[in-house]
Amino acid sequence: MSTAENPVRAALAAFVAERDWARFHTPENLAKSIAIEAGELLECFQWNADAEAERVCDELADVLTYAYLLADRLGRTPEELVLTKLELTRAKYPVERARGRSEKHDRLPE
Amino acid sequence: MSTAENPVRAALAAFVAERDWARFHTPENLAKSIAIEAGELLECFQWNADAEAERVCDELADVLTYAYLLADRLGRTPEELVLTKLELTRAKYPVERARGRSEKHDRLPE
Amino acid sequence: MSTAENPVRAALAAFVAERDWARFHTPENLAKSIAIEAGELLECFQWNADAEAERVCDELADVLTYAYLLADRLGRTPEELVLTKLELTRAKYPVERARGRSEKHDRLPE
Amino acid sequence: MSTAENPVRAALAAFVAERDWARFHTPENLAKSIAIEAGELLECFQWNADAEAERVCDELADVLTYAYLLADRLGRTPEELVLTKLELTRAKYPVERARGRSEKHDRLPE
Q1: I want to staple C28 with a disulfide (CB 3.0 to 4.6 A). Which of A36, B59, C55, D45 is the partner?
Q2: Contact call for residues D54 and C76 (beta carbons, < 8 A)
Q3: Chain C residue closest in CA terms to B34
Q4: Domain total for chain A?
Q5: Angle between helices B53-73 and B78-92 (to 10 degrees)
Q6: Is there a contact between A71 and B64 if contact means CB atoms under 8 Å apart?
Q7: Residue to test with chain A: of B8, B25, B63, most A Cβ within 10 A
């Protein structure tokens, strides 16, 4: 689905257009923004593993918003990016070797 | 759309289940993972504003993948998180005050 | 101690000068570099709280290196930055209110 | 210089001890804290390359503070970490190949 056809991405695009903010949304600035928001998300878990769900949702929403805007700038949909990468990851982590293990692919047992 | 009905999230859920990886995917670990991948995305732009599109897509896909998994852990869809936050942001950044400006809402001119 | 008098900072400055790398070390690029290296440091702890000490030292060294270079660009020493901030933090977290608590200052009990 | 002999690290250690905060300062929590503060530092440069120097100093101080605390937890000084890594980096980036170039060592011309 292109941006025009997806209601969430269409709402984001309209929001940005009304404010004339596309000028700020270079790929580099969006990448910085994703890292900044990822830090705020991580802050929910700074001193312990539990966090208030509403706060986590709020910060995750910011990460997703900038990630959607960057995908759009690259002319890709989030869905195709995730699925394309999933195929690569599937090949790197075969079920029989990776099952129940958290090591990186180059450290998995043969 | 619930995870079961969304083909991308269903593919991710199956990928994780086959590898028995849900045990590693606590909200805290997923938040760390998003921050780690956000750093790798930022690395595409470390020394200049231009970056190879394929590499950016690849790193953005990792951010999105962990963000989708965290949304799922929270029982929310990425779409509803983005739209809920967009309503809040709309209220904080009215068009007439925010148009063409990159300041934070509390620094915008009245 | 100014950079010239501090052996670590003098070694870093010489390393950069020999390679003609100061041109890349704008404050913005150094801030990005710190965030990138902080992500690599965090990766040591991605799936569990234990990490190999040597790997942690290696990644922490990268964070420190870019942090020292940024302090230098700002004409400040790391020591004075840390001490100045410590005074502010001391005022925000009085011993009697903050003892044994991890909340942010605005959530501490009176 | 050990922590006891270095005035900045001694001040930090006293600050933490008075508040009984060492219990929160696991290596993992400190690594998260460094990433969180690195995000706040990056926020100074979110939409443009210029940033207010005082704000940058303030955020950089937070990164340095947690980095110093982590070094201390690892039984190392920031100085030795930086110098040890510098030797490794020197070997990876010989002056004649790296001069004036920002590529990673494995992409430098022979």
Answers
A1: D45
A2: no
A3: C39
A4: 2
A5: 100
A6: yes
A7: B63
Tell me what percent of chain D is helix, strand and coil, each rounded to the nearest 5.
Answer: 70, 0, 30
pTM (2 d.p.):
0.96
Cβ-Cβ contacts under 8 Å, D12 against chain C: 82, 86
CA distance B67 to chain C (A): 15
Query: What was the ipTM of the complex prediction?
Result: 0.95
* In a shared domain, residues C97 and C67: no
Spell out the residues 6+ positions from residue C25 whose beta carbon is closer than 8 angstroms to its own: C16, C69, C73
Looking at the partner chain, which of B32, B48, B102 has a beta carbon nearest the beta carbon of D32? B32
Beta carbons of D24 and C102 less than 8 Å apart: yes
Does one domain contain both B86 and B54?
A: no
Q: What is the mean pLDDT of residues D3-19?
A: 90
A46 contacts in chain C (CB < 8 Å): 102
Mean pLDDT of D85-101: 97
**Mean pLDDT of the residues in chain C:** 95
**B interface test, pick of D26, D47, D55 with most B CB neighbours within 10 Å:** D47
Q: Are residues D62 and D84 in the same domain?
A: no
> Residue A32 is nearest to which of C32, C48, C102, comparing CB atoms?
C32
Q: How confident is the model at residue A1 (pLDDT cuts 50, 70, 90)?
A: low
| Structure token pair of residue B12 | 């991710």
Residue D1 has pLDDT above 60, yes or no: no
CB C46 within 8 A of CB B32: yes
> pLDDT tens digits for B36-78?
999 999 999 999 999 999 999 999 999 999 999 999 999 999 9
Residue A34 pLDDT: 98
**Among candidates C33, C46, C47 on the partner chain, residue whose Cβ is nearest the Cβ of B46:** C33
Q: Which residue of A has its CA nearest to D25?
A: A47
- Is the same domain home to B35 and B66? yes
The H-assigned helical ranges of D6-77 are 7-19, 27-43, 53-73
**Min distance D103 CA to chain B CA atoms (Å):** 9
Contact C35 D57 (CB under 8 A): no
Asked if D65 and D86 sit in the same domain, the reply is: no
Confidence of residue A101 (pLDDT cuts 50, 70, 90): very high
**Do residues D66 and D109 both lie within one domain?**
no
Angle at D32 between CA B3 and CA B17, to 5 degrees: 25
Residues D60 and D105 in one domain: no
pLDDT > 80? residue B2: no
Same domain, D69 and D106: no
What CA–CA distance (Å, rounded) separates A44 from A79?
A: 27
CATH label of the domain that carries residue D69:
1.10.287.1080
